[in-house]
Predict the structure.
Amino acid sequence: MEGIDEGTERDSLMRSSYYTITSNFTKTVNWFVVYKDNKNTIDIPHGIGQRSMFIDLLIGYFIELEEYEKCNKLSKLRELVIMAGD
């Protein structure tokens, strides 16, 4: 049963990150928050090349699930992030 819980938690985290970064592209390009709850905010700093890598991770995850609409939206965001200096 442990594997099921881990998979559910991973899915929840990936979906939460997806909705957080795709809700407002302009805001995301300026301040790349990948997770936020009442007490914690996790962001990826500008200029270290990790933002596009994180988006690639999400794209890979959603390709496995065949959720191509999400992949398309993430690809567009990735282009903007790279243009802004990743």
